[in-house]
């Protein structure tokens, strides 16, 4: 378990903290009888700490007169295309980052990053090649929460950016500058955080697109401070002209969106400078995105498109840009808050039918897991879900780790040969990151599960809270050793495949015909492996049979959604066009007798 201690302000760089932990104490001196001590006058002076390469980061009073808590990063980049803080990722195309915790960092005091500070992808400053780099520092600010479970924790509250430390309003950062680094010539570089990231302007509303935000009583009570839920709402064509119509509600689950970016009323920007998508190996992909968004607008307003309300939920939180839409010991009752507070508010305001037979969900990746989760945990409140490339739905294949059967997450358990477990690949199987890479990357970004990244949010959602109030580690991020007690808790509470199997006698009749799962068989994060597991169970179900669908895209990467007619780069931009007709078919087949199927069909 990672521990956090106050940063030793004023300490020399040679005693910089390692992962927020104090340096190891020196060996104990031998007993006096073993070696007589010389007279004090004859004793040799203690050697001075060897100088080393390092950084000292501070902020002036003009940024804050009060001490600040948070995480201090120093980024080194050899690419001048963007600011260094905008070039950090777990993949191959990343720059170098180091991070230390700062508790009560006062203005003018220095947070120190030195030889023992953990970094990514190079583990130490000593591993940085000599050369000229652009350096930039950031202070990611933490807030203190006094939760209703009795724990006091320090976490980065989302400030409208969707939990991205490099863009979070209120964070301090420095002006990028060139430095020449030579590990053979130790030097301390002092960096002042002379800028603050400004607030983000709220998105604009239109005839079709509305934005909602409510305070959640359930989440406010849990976190001990006001907490909010939001939603982007796309209203159907004719909403204002048919005041007596009531509509089915479709929830698109997924990552935080500042605005609806896949629905564009204006044509593509004629002055848009074409970019290049490394992921899809396509030039001008930004224009393709705008064209697709405008096409949805044209389809949405066409005479034959199904008339329904589509919403995107905003539930960024102190751990991630998304809560996974379930109740959790570390995040609080997000599932109930969404289902019992936000959804009823939206359905009442926008004239939704408000019954389970007329409520649906879909999503990809995080949203795919959430869609299956809400159908599993709230089976009567949804009449079908379409889950594309879902995050691990069976923890025997948690990417490439079996958290129940494996001993170590980083390497195979074989006696003579240890092989690294991969976490990212392309459609050819070429690996760009391992589980160990991803773990160290997140540990550099934040101790105690505070990285705001993928492994840490899974852990925050699935794990019990530790004695310190932070999520219990599923594995040690430095050694990879798995905690099987934590894994057992995961299985019993959030392993969707296990829960469906365990409770099929009661869940089966409620989810019959409602489960549809799609994934590429070359998913970049190996998410297809868990889908194979759940499909194996679903195909064997009886009393009742599941009567749903599981489908795979040949050589398709993340996030294939069931469209065999288009490449993944295009199909991922067409979720409503793909799923709304299927939802309409489901309504016709399953709506209770006497239900209103006419007022919204015009």
General description of the model:
The chain is globular, with a radius of gyration of 26 Å. β25 (515-520), α10 (528-539) and β26 form a beta-alpha-beta unit. It has 3 domains: 13-22 and 53-196, Immunoglobulin-like; 209-394 and 495-590, Alpha/Beta hydrolase fold, catalytic domain (Rossmann fold), CATH 3.40.50.1820; 396-491, no CATH class. Helix content is 21%, strand content 21%. With 602 residues, it is an alpha+beta fold. The strands form 7 sheets. Strands 13-14-18-15-21-22-25-26 form an 8-stranded mixed beta sheet, sandwiched between helices. The protein has 12 helices and 26 strands. The protein has helices at residues 217-223, 285-300, 334-349, 366-377, 435-445, 454-462, 484-494, 496-502, 504-511, 528-539, 568-571, 575-590; strands at residues 54-58, 68-77, 96-105, 111-113, 119-120, 131-141, 143-146, 152-155, 172-173, 177-181, 188-192, 195-196, 209-215, 228-234, 249-253, 276-277, 282-283, 309-314, 327-328, 332-333, 359-364, 385-388, 422-425, 431-434, 515-520, 549-553. The longest helix is centred in the middle third of the chain and has 16 residues, at 285-300. It comes from Pendulispora albinea. It holds the Pfam family Esterase. Residues 31-45 have a biased composition (Low complexity). This is Esterase. InterPro entries: AB_hydrolase_fold (IPR029058), Esterase-like (IPR000801), Mycobacterial_A85_antigen (IPR050583).
């Amino acid at each position: 378990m990672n521990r956090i201690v106050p940063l030793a302000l004023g300490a020399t760089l040679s005693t910089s903290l390692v992962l927020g932990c104090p340096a190891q104490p020196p060996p104990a001196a031998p007993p006096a009888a073993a070696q007589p001590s010389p007279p004090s006058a004859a004793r040799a002076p203690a050697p001075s700490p060897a100088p080393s390469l390092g950084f000292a980061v501070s902020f002036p009073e003009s940024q804050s007169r009060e001490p600040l808590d948070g995480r201090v990063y120093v980024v080194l980049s050899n690419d001048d295309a963007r600011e260094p803080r905008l070039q950090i990722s777990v993949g191959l195309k990343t720059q170098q980052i180091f991070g230390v915790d700062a508790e009560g960092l006062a203005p003018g005091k220095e947070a120190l990053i030195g030889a023992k500070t953990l970094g990514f992808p190079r583990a130490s400053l000593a591993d940085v090649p000599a050369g000229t780099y652009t350096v930039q520092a950031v202070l990611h600010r933490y807030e203190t929460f006094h939760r209703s479970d009795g724990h006091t924790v320090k976490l980065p509250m989302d400030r409208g950016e969707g939990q991205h430390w490099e863009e979070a309003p209120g964070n301090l950062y420095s002006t990028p500058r060139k430095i020449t680094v030579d590990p053979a010539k130790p030097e301390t570089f002092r960096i002042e955080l002379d800028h603050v990231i400004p607030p983000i302007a709220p998105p604009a509303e239109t005839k079709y697109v509305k934005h909602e935000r409510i305070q959640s009583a359930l989440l406010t009570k849990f976190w001990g401070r006001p907490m909010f839920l939001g939603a982007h709402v796309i209203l159907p064509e004719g909403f204002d002209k048919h005041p007596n119509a009531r509509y089915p509600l479709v929830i698109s689950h997924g990552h935080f969106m500042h605005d609806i970016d896949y629905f564009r009323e204006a044509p593509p920007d004629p002055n848009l400078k074409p970019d290049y998508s490394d992921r899809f190996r396509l030039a001008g992909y930004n224009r393709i995105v705008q064209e697709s968004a405008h096409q949805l607008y044209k389809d949405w307003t066409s005479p034959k498109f199904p008339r329904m309300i589509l919403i995107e939920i905003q539930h960024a939180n102190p751990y991630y840009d998304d809560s996974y839409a379930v109740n959790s010991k570390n995040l609080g009752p997000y599932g109930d808050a969404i289902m019992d507070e936000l959804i009823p508010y939206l359905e009442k305001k926008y004239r939704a039918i408000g019954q389970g037979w007329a409520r649906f969900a879909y999503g990809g990746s995080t949203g795919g897991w959430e869609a299956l989760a809400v159908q599993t945990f709230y089976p009567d409140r949804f009449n079908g879900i379409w889950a594309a490339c879902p995050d691990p739905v069976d923890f025997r294949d948690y990417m490439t780790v079996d958290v129940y059967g494996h001993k170590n997450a980083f390497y195979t358990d074989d006696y003579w040969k240890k092989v690294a477990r991969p976490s990212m690949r392309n459609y050819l199987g070429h690996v760009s990151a391992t589980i160990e890479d991803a773990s160290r990357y997140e540990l550099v970004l934040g101790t105690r599960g505070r990285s705001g990244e993928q492994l840490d949010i899974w852990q925050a959602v699935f794990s019990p809270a530790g004695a310190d109030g932070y999520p219990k580690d599923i594995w040690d991020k430095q050694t990879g050793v798995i905690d099987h007690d934590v894994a057992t808790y995961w299985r019993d509470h959030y392993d969707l495949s296990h829960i469906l199997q365990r409770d099929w006698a009661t869940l089966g009749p409620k989810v019959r015909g409602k489960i549809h799962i799609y994934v590429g068989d070359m998913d970049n994060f190996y998410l297809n492996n868990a889908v194979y597991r759940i499909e194996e169970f679903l195909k064997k179900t009886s009393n009742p049979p599941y009567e749903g669908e599981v489908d795979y895209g040949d050589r398709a990467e993340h996030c294939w959604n069931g469209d065999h007619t288009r490449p993944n780069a295009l199909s991922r931009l067409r979720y409503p066009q793909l799923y709304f007709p299927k939802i309409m078919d489901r309504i016709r087949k399953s709506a209770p007798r006497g239900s209103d199927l006419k007022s919204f069909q015009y």
